[in-house]
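Troubleshooting entry. Yesterday's outputs looked truncated, so today I'm pasting the complete records for two proteins to confirm everything comes through intact. If either block looks cut off, that's the bug. Protein one:
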Amino acid sequence: MARFLITATGKDRPGIVASVAKVLFENDCNIEDATMRLLEGQFAIVLVAFSQSMRATDLMKALDPLSDELGLVTSVREMEELTEEVADYRPEGSLWTVSVNGPDRSGIVYEVASLLAGVNGNIVDWTTRVIGERDKPAYSMILVVELPSEVDGQLVAAELERLGQRLGVHVTMQMTDVESL
């Protein structure tokens, strides 16, 4: 069995997910995990699929027609064999959701991510949006972060709140229910 990390990006249009899923289905691949976003009119998907019979080079050739037909840039990378340890992975620490909202400015992602990295926080999900008027854009970011068990999440939340005040944005952090992910 082979597992693949597959990406596809390009200008958005209806039918891209169906086209990618069709190629995978027709080539004996099962989609295990996926995320897809529209980013300013651009389509982006990242997924993990496995196959009993395909190789990465063969799967890339099967996806090539989508590059021409839909204008997608695709990549396929074979992943390490799934071990029981990985399959049974559960966070050792705690999961927290961080929300950042306020006027858009450069450096918000860097500052928040750096603070979290400084306490060995691992960002496991990340979404950002710039909304509002062009002359007065607002920024919204949501992160799911795994904190090591020895890190006090309430102290990190307080640090993030102080950082938000310095950056002129509102930052909150709350424990995340693992079952809701």
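Protein two, checking that the full record survives here as well:
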Amino acid sequence: MIKNLQLLQILSAKALPVLSTILVLTLLACAAPAPDRMPTQVDTENLVEEYRIGVGDMVEVSVWRNPDLGATVPVRPDGQISVPLIGDVDAGGKTAEEVAEIIRKELEVYVKQPRVAVILTQLNSHEFLSRIRVTGAVRNPVTIPYRRGITVLDAVLEAGGLNEFASPDRARLVRKSGDEPGTYGISLGEILNKGDLTTNYELRPGDVITVPERTL
């Protein structure tokens, strides 16, 4: 029994420095600064601006606890919508939040602390503005819904191709928005007859392709 106690004392004495070292390292690890982590919050500063209401959009107006004051109405050509009790409200060019605030202020005359929500149910004006147009000396001038990857050649073919009066190498691409607005020459003759795709630009929403008639 005495020998066992002596052996235990010897082992404890040898293990103590090791345990002390482990304890110190653990405390240092806890005190050390945590490594950098990937941010979890999404950076929204560079996102596309809020959608602004346009002619033809459908707008749903709701007033909390006052369902009779709600309505789903189109944006008229003058940019206004008709709202129960307060009449016409200017919505064109504004965000849904801005229109809701206008309605809220107007309703304060009739309703105590109104809570107004405006929701866009159909973005018809956005769809119109994002279309691609092909005009001039083509067989069927058209407007085409934008789709990713569509090119000048795709759009011209959807317009039925050139008519007999076209001046193909005087065609133009008119771009009014985006990073590179301006007018660009299109060599449709080279594209159609020689397969030269140098000016077969990829299109963007709102682009207009115009093909002039040849001069006599």
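Both blocks look complete. Sanity check on protein two: DSSP finds five helices and ten strands in the chain.
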